[in-house]
Amino acid sequence: MISGLLEKFHSQTQCDVNFKFKGGQSIGAHIIILSAASPVFTAMFQSDLKESQTHEVIIEDIDFQVFIHFLEYLYSCRVSKLAKDEHFVQTINLLCQAADKYFVEDLKHEFEFQSHLIGETCQLLQSPLLPVNDFEESFHYLAFN
Q: Domain residue spans in the chain?
């Protein structure tokens, strides 16, 4: 069922709300999915706010691509594979900000958990008890997987 929901999002089928961004970019979504995932969206679409009437939301403080990753999480409860490039850490920080803004606690906890694991792994890899070959192999594995 989750893959079907994500497919509806990716194909932009039966969307009933449109998010608009700087530069004219826009993306559709489904109010029921957004409301189920975020109390902020619930309040937005069940009130007398302009967004509940127009079904249009202007996003000025979140990058378009980051917002797509955020919406994919709302539809699938998974963070889509992020490019491990120079923007990787920044993208994670921006996703955390979006999760904070829309009170999506599960997404914030996901990153906190992963951050904790990475920190522990780095401490272990820096340990003098780990033979140099194991350290190099472990670092190579972490860097490329």
A: 2-103
